[in-house]
Amino acid sequence: MNVLATLLVIGGVLHLGTLLAGALVPRVLDFRTQLRDASPLFRQLVWVYALYIFLTILGFGVVSIVFAELLADGTPLARAVCGFIALFWIVRLLIQLFVYDANSYLAGWPLKLGYHGLTVVFSYHAAIYSIAALVPA
After folding, report:
1. pLDDT tens digit string along 70-129?
2. Could you tell me if 83 and 133 are in contact, meaning their C-beta atoms sit under 8 angstroms apart?
């Protein structure tokens, strides 16, 4: 396994770790209280969107672990898939840095560490998948 494939496997494992962190979001953000007064359709949309994001990240992780060598081989399809994953994480990183204001929810060092740790993970994904997309094998 070459270096890029190894970095993509690490990316796959980090995707799965991101899902573990994401599982805490409804509790940390108190979805139950926040969505109590929302319309049923809005509540359903929030949960459906959350499920779609979960499945997307799960797919990124599984594909990265199982097909790391193929993703690293520089074929047009591999580069397109890596480019899509890179774009997903670049946009998510920009949202993390410039849109979200999570300060009121970062009470205590575990939440601060988790938030900043996720920022590092998003940066890793943006960098590694961009390299896989842009640098031919």
Report:
1. 999 999 999 999 999 999 999 999 999 999 988 888 888 988 999 999 999 999 999 999
2. yes
**Residue 89: predicted pLDDT:** 98
- Sign of the Cα torsion 67, 73, 77, 83 reads positive
pLDDT of residue 71: 97
CA-wise closest residue to 133 among 76, 89, 59? 76
pLDDT bucket at 137, cuts 50 / 70 / 90: low
Which residue range is the domain that position 59 belongs to?
Answer: 3-134
Whether residue 96 contacts residue 50, with contact meaning beta carbons closer than 8 Å, is answered with no
How far apart (Å, rounded) are the C-alpha atoms in residues 68 and 9?
Answer: 6
Residue 118, both tokens: 């996720």
Query: Distance (Å, rounded) from C-alpha 84 to C-alpha 61?
Result: 13
Interior angle at CA 94, CA 9 and CA 53, nearest 5: 55
Nearest to 64 by CA among 87, 86, 92: 86
Q: Are 12 and 61 in contact (CB under 8 A)?
A: yes
Q: How many domains does the chain have?
A: 1
